[in-house]
Amino acid sequence: MALPVQAKLAHLAKVSRRFLLLHQRCLCYGAPSEKKVAPAEARVFSGIQPTGVPHLGNYLGALETWVSLQDQYPSVLYSIVDLHSITQPQDPERLKANILDMVASLLACGVDTKKAILFQQSQVPEHAELAWILGCLTSMPRLRHLPQWKVKSRQKNEGSVGLYTYPVLQAADILLYRSTHVPVGEDQIQHLELTQDLAHIFNKRYGELFPEPRALLSATRKVKSLRDPSAKMSKSDPQATAAIAITDSPDDIALKIRRAVTDFTSEVTYDPAARPGVSNLVSMHAAAASIGVEEAVSRAQGLDTGAYKAMVAEAVIRRLAPIREEVLRLRAERPHLEAVLAEGRRRARQLAAPTLQEVRRRVGLC
Length: 366
Prior knowledge:
- By secondary structure, this protein is mainly alpha-helical.
- It is built from 14 helices and five strands.
- The chain has helices at residues 5-29, 56-69, 82-85, 92-109, 126-135, 140-144, 147-156, 161-175, 189-206, 250-258, 276-289, 293-299, 305-331, 334-363, and strands spanning 43-48, 75-80, 117-120, 181-184, 214-217.
- The strands form two sheets. It has a three-stranded parallel sheet with strand order 1-2-3. Strands 4-5 form a two-stranded parallel sheet.
- α2 (56-69) links the parallel β1 and β2.
- The longest helix is centred in the last third of the chain and has 30 residues, at 334-363.
């Protein structure tokens, strides 16, 4: 029997209200396949712990690459990963100072906030929430065999839960921005593989969302400790002359390089296996002077290692001088450094919040 016109109109209005309500709920609860997600643009993400002023190895091995990448990719994010740093005991006041020192250092090294988003990890709460969600997709055996846990837990005889799940937070850092490329050292490849695995697991379970990021391996040779060329240069080295900070004075740089471990052969050659100390100096010279290793060895012809150390020191001092000057200037401008972080937080959250909202929708949390 045909419905009266008024009844038809009332029925249509009721159906329309139900459709509108269903549409609104689908923004949060709909099946993964019901919502198209735009393909991710090429995007680089990298992070650095706030351990204070970087050393020469950080600069030549990572930060130079950061500066070049911001001119090569349309979207670049660099994070001061303070949540990672507290997996080890930290003095709160020292940590605050180190964060600002790192901001000053990154800016002085050439990170341009017009080209890259520079921000403090803990100021973007989406990192921690995504890490929890990804942690629920990760098995304990998978984490147990990663180098971060194996090395540091052995050093401490036991490790914190934070240290154990460190690689999951690292994966969240990267995936939160749907990053496509990550500059990493060879020692971080396994951690990036975990990130790729988690992207694959999430996409398979909840629908395509995350790209599987690719590694960008730096061609720059690692800078070794000046006191132990078998180990990387590190600020945590108990020997004060083992590492060169980018804010070291010319006299300090010259002294540290003069005391660098070499061997009893006076000629300068490049042979990392047989002559690690001298080869470390050659690598440092080549990187600081922006020349090849062969050219560095050629310039050292006729010099013994003592005289060559003076040449290396001169190259390093010349390279770091403008950076040192700029770090010292920026350190005195705390309000400016805080403003940089505030703007970085705003821009990072503009990208992070929609991604996390989509993750929460797909998982069923909203």
